[in-house]
Write a structure and sequence with these properties.
Ig-like_fold, Immunoglobulin-like, 26% strand, acyltransferase activity, transferring groups other than amino-acyl groups, Rossmann fold, eight-stranded mixed β-sheet, Enterochelin esterase-like enzyme, alpha/beta, single chain, Mycobacterial_A85_antigen
């Protein structure tokens, strides 16, 4: 495999141009809806590892047979921050579109395959279905956190029936294991939001599994649960049909109601109305903001909301104030920090709410890890501030200029997937601009671009730049985790200067960036050790500063006392003969302009991807020229003609790094370890760095490597 640096324009998985996020409305209008028949014998398009990596391999022929030729293929699913819908772009390799995403947290995921934004198809190798969306499939990532969502053992599950009532309306009814008509049961009426099917509570909400597992644990009272379609309040016709078919209590003390979004608002109105029919009410991301409380005798009103990405967040702030004014008692589950208005949150809400029904409970507080409401979330008014707008707790609001008011599809592509992979999140129209709030993001350094109607666009409101990627911008979410990639106080860091020199190999004047430590003394008697740090394919000498945060990393290590004072030279590796360029042009120029050593024991060389391949090439051809050597996300290649003894004798440190299985060089890298072992070359392997073939990994690699240099 060639040692290519990450390069967005040629790497669709990393945000190739024009791959758009797909909204339900757009699909309804424009998608080519194709639901292939079962293909159980086909090779699965999706495999999920035990540690949560989802590997997609979609045959080109299958896509073209279904929707015709396409230039891009994406997997759209609930992979984004706060489980928001986002697109994961696949890369075409030969006869398949492929990509690896993860590690994903335990839970249920749903996805669909799309080509060129609007051409949708169902994964025919996945037998799961989402009744309300024929193109969608699901998969489950097991783990302790998702245990309430797992299938219960055979024989310990409740029964789900379809109940027809009124003028042909239907509801789903769950009855507990061992249900018998010999005794009456309390009943919970469960509603989805407007325009959402009752089946979504089963296909996406895992209501059956949640109720089964609560029953097995004896964490809930035996009850009948009735799931109606969204769009209307629970009427007398449904209540009567349930009472006629099932043995249920009919008094309010044994009736409960809950719902999501608009269904949550309807549930509260019904419970607080007079005469009341419900003693228990739950609002999951409910959108009610005012109440008319004719009934204050409800035993339980419990409110749930996601974080500020949930439209119900501000509504919940207003609702709590309204309930206080009306002197209605209620409980608040706290703000879910990890989810917005989606099924991931509502699954947790159901699992928390049901055990509180028809029984005495001691715990009336919020769920573990949930926080308090901090007042309404209000980003700056449109056009009043450069974007993105970043809150202290990691929520980021992006806004376009008015240049795209006539666009049809706008999204933000960024490194915010698990491990730093790249996802695109759709923006929504806000007047003559587009906006979206994403988060919470962990403290770290992020980069992004806008995708406007399948064209990559620079956020001109953001003054940051990336020389090799003109449409990219960057931002930092501050915090302790991001300390090493954050600027040190002004005046305390090292200096970055431009070094211009003549390259005989390239036959041109070339430029390198050079970091010198605080207190650098050009007249010091002992020359400084020198570290040559190389970029990857499609990049140049600016990337380690603009994207790799090399200055910030080196500054912090120096101020922390971890770094041997050294000079770091970041050159341009885009040249036909890297070894000759470094040894005969760049290194002599560095020695001419800076007080650096030519002693091999005082020289280090490292690079990422292509630069890592160049580093290995130098090690093979000139063993001992650099006593400290490191490669990030690169393979050693062939061992033919390699002088292993000379490498061992002349190298004090050979340290290797690679991303996880989302790093496309991972297979070749692991094969390289076998080659090195066979040759008997001594090396250190840092272990897998979580993340893809991207800067999140390489920044961490430099953070680990720099303090190890020139100390042996």
């Amino acid at each position: 495999m060639p040692f290519l640096g990450y390069h967005g324009r040629s790497h669709p998985q990393s945000g190739g141009r024009g791959l758009a996020a797909i909204t339900a409305a757009l699909l309804t209008i424009a998608a080519v809806l194709l639901v292939p028949g079962p293909a159980a014998a086909d090779t699965p398009w999706l495999t999920v590892s035990e540690d949560g990596y989802a590997s997609f391999t979609v045959p080109v022929a299958a896509v073209e047979a279904a929707v015709g030729p396409v230039s891009q293929v994406a997997i759209e699913g609930n992979f984004g921050p706060s489980s928001t819908r986002a697109e994961f772009g696949l890369t075409r390799r030969g006869d398949a579109w492929s990509g690896v995403l993860g590690p994903l947290k335990p839970g249920l995921y749903s996805y669909r395959v799309t080509g060129d934004d609007t051409k949708g198809l169902k994964d025919p190798t996945n037998s799961t279905v989402v009744a309300s969306d024929p193109l969608r499939s699901t998969f489950f990532v097991a783990g302790d956190a998702a245990r309430p969502l797992a299938d219960a053992p055979e024989g310990q599950r409740g029964t789900i029936d379809t109940l027809t009532y009124g003028a042909g309306s239907k509801a789903l009814v769950w009855t507990p294991p061992g249900y018998t008509a010999r005794k009456p049961y309390p009943v919970l009426f469960l509603q989805p939001g407007d325009g959402v099917s009752a089946t979504d509570w089963l296909d996406l909400g895992r209501a059956g599994q949640i109720l089964d597992n609560l029953t097995i644990r004896r964490a809930m009272e035996p009850m009948v649960v009735v799931i109606s379609d969204g769009g209307a309040a629970v009427g007398e016709d449904l209540r009567k049909a349930v009472a006629d078919r099932y043995r249920v209590h009919r008094d309010p003390a044994h009736q409960a109601i809950a719902g999501v979004a608009e269904g949550g608002a309807r549930a509260l109105r019904a419970a607080l109305a007079r005469p009341s029919r419900y003693a228990y009410a739950g609002s999951f991301s409910g959108l009610l903001t005012e109440v008319k409380a004719d009934n204050r005798q409800v035993k339980l009103v419990r409110l749930y909301t996601g974080n500020v990405t949930d439209p119900a967040y501000n509504a919940t702030v207003r609702l709590t104030k309204a309930l206080d004014r009306a002197r209605v008692g209620y409980e608040f589950d706290g703000v879910n920090p990890d989810a917005g208005a989606n099924w991931n949150a509502w699954q947790e809400n159901l699992a928390d709410f049901v055990p509180r029904l028809f029984r005495k409970v001691r715990d009336h507080g919020p769920s573990a890890g949930h926080g308090r409401l901090k007042g309404e979330f209000t980003p700056p008014a449109p056009g009043t501030t450069p974007t993105p707008f970043v809150t202290k707790d990691g929520f980021v609001t992006f806004e376009t200029t008015t240049d795209f008011q006539n666009a049809q599809n706008v999204k933000v592509w960024a490194n915010w997937a698990p491990g730093g992979s790249w996802l695109r999140v759709p923006m929504t129209r806000a007047g003559d601009r587009w906006r979206v709030t994403v988060g919470p993001l962990d403290p770290w350094f992020y980069y992004y671009r806008l995708i406007v109607d399948r064209t990559s666009v620079k956020d001109v409101s953001n003054p940051t730049k990336v020389t090799t990627e003109p449409t990219w911008s960057t931002f930092l979410v501050a915090g302790e985790r991001a300390r090493m990639v954050t600027d040190v106080p002004a005046g305390r860091g090292g200096e970055v200067e431009r070094l211009t020199y003549r390259s005989a190999v390239a036959n041109e004047d070339r430029t390198a960036l050079v970091w010198t430590p605080p207190g650098y003394d050009p007249e010091r008697a002992e020359p400084y050790p020198v570290f040559y740090l190389q970029h990857g394919g499609g990049q140049n000498y600016t990337d380690w500063v603009e994207m790799g945060r090399a200055k910030q990393i080196l500054d912090h290590h120096f101020l922390d006392g971890n770094l041997v004072p050294m000079v770091v030279v970041m050159g341009n590796g885009n040249v036909s003969d890297f070894n000759k360029e470094l040894l005969e042009n760049l290194a002599p120029a560095a020695r001419e302009h800076y007080n650096v050593s030519s002693d091999p024991s005082r020289q280090a060389l490292a690079g990422l991807s292509m630069g890592g391949g160049q580093t290995f090439g130098m090690l093979k051809a000139n063993p001992g020229q650099f006593a400290y050597v490191a490669a990030f996300s690169a393979g050693f290649g062939s061992g033919a003609g390699v002088d292993a003894q000379a490498i061992n004798d002349g190298t004090r440190l050979l340290r290797l790094y690679v991303g996880d299985r989302t790093d496309f060089v991972y297979p070749s890298f692991m094969a390289s370890l076998d080659t090195l072992n066979t040759l008997g070359i001594r090396y250190e392997f840092d272990g897998v760095t979580p993340g893809p073939h991207g800067w999140d990994v390489w920044q961490k690699n430099l953070i680990d490597l720099a303090p190890r240099l020139f100390k042996r």
